[in-house]
Amino acid sequence: MTVRVVEAPFDPAAELATFARGRSDVGAVASFTGLVRDEHGGERILAMALEHYPGMTERQLARIEAEARARWPLLDVLVIHRVGRMLPGEPIVLVATASAHRAAALEACAFLIDWLKTKAPFWKLEETSSGARWVEARASDDEAAARWERR
Amino acid sequence: MTVRVVEAPFDPAAELATFARGRSDVGAVASFTGLVRDEHGGERILAMALEHYPGMTERQLARIEAEARARWPLLDVLVIHRVGRMLPGEPIVLVATASAHRAAALEACAFLIDWLKTKAPFWKLEETSSGARWVEARASDDEAAARWERR
Amino acid sequence: MRIRYFAWLKQRVGVAEEELDLPAEVTTVGGLKAWLGTRHPRFAEACAAKGVVRAAVDQEFADDDRPLAGAREVAFFPPVTGG
Amino acid sequence: MRIRYFAWLKQRVGVAEEELDLPAEVTTVGGLKAWLGTRHPRFAEACAAKGVVRAAVDQEFADDDRPLAGAREVAFFPPVTGG
Question: What is the value of ipTM here, to two decimals?
Fold first, then answer.
């Protein structure tokens, strides 16, 4: 499985240590890790709770991965997304891509995280000292995802 | 030091394990690893020897890193480039960037490897079964680097 | 039909999911939204704000004109914010 | 002045570096290239092919019109291929 939704903390470096290893046809590996920050909009974040839509999540992630593989000659892909409650500094998401050449790995990695942010059913609830608040979708995320729409 | 030129094999996953760790202001980490492939232009690669210009190399890498930090709000940057003889599957270069948000981390990572490929004095010598050959510069690398020229 | 709610929409409606028999005249996602609004005033309020209530039919994103024929599960949620 | 050669240019010329006293009329990178070509025929051959011989003066990339006044080290090499 190259797409995983996990409730427990995970270690991106440990995942990357085994990603595409032992394959000497891989010339390029790109990765992106998203982490919980301790600040948002000037307010201190105590924790983050990630809700998702079980079933649809896995389906959408698999679809996004398939789209990336159709667009770029990828030799390996890994997507891990955490759900549940997590603390500042903890990883939320890891995307990794492997290809013979760097352009494919770098572009596919950016594509995967851009599409994941707008097409996978996750919702972030931030816990602050003044209570919990749902994170609002950002126009910049829609714009980033739209870059990759086929014209 | 966030820029290192090394002769011994290095482990990108181990480097990433300590990169930007313990910083809860980091929301995004991007990385790129370039590896020796076992094939190039239809010929089997037995080994790769990286020659460089000691002194100028470190100077150029530091300059490229400074340029990235000037362009994007980066919280951390790491560039490791190996020199000497290495085998297929072994890492040649690692670039990692950390920022509050993903666009800065992803763009700066792509920028760093694109500029490194055209502005740092490294030369690749491939060992094949029919002898050693110097790798020729590719027009696509110049084009990738030119994307980042200030207009 | 099974109706599910996520994120703050779930908190507004007050239930995570409900099993409902739809009246015959409810044939699309848009029609279902309007009908659910009569049962949950705060759902109607949310739907009145443009673009904040998204839907999925059988775990596929769906627009208001999407027919419900054959569907087993419809979910409503705010724009996604993962990653 | 110290002259250095890298990669296949070093193999062509046959030395990695040499310490040379330049004649007074050699004042630019381009002039130095021409003069070195008279000493190393294979260096002249390489320079005849457009774009394959690059230069650095005191570890900074330099074009042919770059003056040599004050320079301690000039390096010649093919286009870089790292990463």
Answer: 0.95
